[in-house]
User: Fold this.
Amino acid sequence: MSSAPFPDLGGHGIIERNPTYISVSELREYLSCPLRWWYKYRMGLWTERTTPFFALGTAVHSGLALWYGNKSNKLSGGKAKEFALRGFSDTYQKEAEKVDWSLETTRNILTDSATGQEMLEAAITAGDNWTPHQDGGIEKTFMADIKHSKLGTLPIQLKATVDMLLDNKNVVEHKTAERKWEQGREHGDIQATAYALAVRDNFGHDPEVTFNIISKSAKGPNVDRRVTRRSQDQIDRLYIQVRSFLDAREKGAVYPNPTAFIHEKCEFRALCDKWESHPQQLPDSRRALKVLLPTLADNAVKTLQDPPRIR
Assistant:
C-alpha cells in the first residue's frame, strides 16, 4: 500500500480546483486539517451548512462593517448604529438558516441572536479613533507576492481580505470569541502575518495589526484590543507553510487531523475517526464520498468557487 492516502488521482475523474492564489482562509484550513482542506477546496465538497459560532461571528462582522462604513461616510452616530444593528439582524437570519439547530443541546437561535446583538453594541460603545482608508478600506482585498528573505518568491500569490484598512495603512481585524483570548495569542495568529505581508507588498508599509476581539462572559460582552506586528522571520515562516501547501496539492499526500478544533462537528469526522483507528486509503472521488456521507450529497456545492471566508 502507498504511504500516501491518495496514491493515484489520475483515474478518478476529479475536477480539481487549482487557482493561482491561496487565500488566508484556505491556508488556515490546510494547516488545521489537510484532509478537510483537500475535500473542501481541492475537490469542491464544501456545503452551505455552518455552526452557531460562525453564524453569530459572520453577523457581528456584517454589523461592524456597516458601522465603520457609514461612519466614514459622515452618517450620524445614531443612524450608523441603526444600520449596523439592522445589518446584523438581516445577516444573522440568513446565517442561522444554515445551522442544523436540532443538533444543538446548549444553544438556540433566540439566545444567540440576543447575544450577538449585545456583542455588536459593546464593540460600538467601546469607541476608537479608527478611520477607514479612503480607497475602500472596509473588507479590502489584496493580492500579494509571497517572498522569502533568502529563497525568493513562490509561484502562487496570497489573497488577503482585511476587515478594515485604515487611512494610516494599519489594519483592524474583528474577532468574535466564546471566551477571552489567552495572553500573547495575537502574536502568533497567521492572519496578522498574512495581512502584514499584503500591506507590505502593496504599500511598502510595515503595518500594525489590531485585533478587535469581542468575547462572551457571564457579566456580558468583553471588548479587548490587541496590537501586534510581524517580523521578516514570521513572513519567512508563512512562505514555508505555503510551500508545504503546494507540495501537498501537487502530490496529494494529505492526512486527517483528529485534534483540529473543527473535528467535533466536521462533516468528514466519521472518515477521520475510521482512519485514525485503522490507517487506510481514504476516498478520493466525489462519488465515493457522497455514498459514504449522504448528507454531503444533499448539501454539496457543485461549483469549484472559494468556500465562504472563515471568520
